[in-house]
Amino acid sequence: MYLILVILAWLYVALMMAVAEATSANGTLAGAVFTFFAYGVGPVSLVAYLMGRPARRRARERREAEASTAPDGGGEAAADPVAPVRKEP
């Protein structure tokens, strides 16, 4: 929960930096866009990806555990790989 709050706060700060860049006498709109992506979107996406790693690992382990306990999902070979031949009456 705190991570989302920190991410939103950082994006707000980066947006305000971009607005200051765009409205500055020497600033440009292209510089503002670059500022927002360089100081806002880039670092936030990297941090969110790295901080989300444990959750992705837990989800992967949970999927693997569900697949191994599911019927016919254990990955084991059948007891009789060839069906028995029936004799004609």
Q: Give unreliable regions as ranges.
A: none
Strand tally, please? 0
Please tell me what the overall shape is. Answer: rod-shaped
Which structural class best describes the helix and strand composition? Answer: mainly alpha
- Order of secondary-structure elements: HHH
How widely separated are the two ends? Answer: 71 Å
Q: Any idea how many domains?
A: 1
Helical content stands at 55-70%
Question: What fraction of residues sit in β-strands?
Answer: under 5%
Summed up, the helix count is: 3
Integer average pLDDT: 85
Largest sheet: none
Rg, rounded, reads: 27 Å
Region (Disordered): 60-89
Protein name: Transmembrane protein
Transmembrane segments: 32-52
Biased composition (Low complexity): 77-89
Q: What would you note in describing this structure?
A:
The protein has 89 residues and is an all-alpha fold. It has one domain. It is 70% helix and 0% strand. Helix 1 runs antiparallel to helix 2. The longest helix has 23 residues, at 29-51.
Task: Give a brief outline of the structure.
With 89 residues, the protein is mainly α. It contains 3 helices and no strands. This is Transmembrane protein.
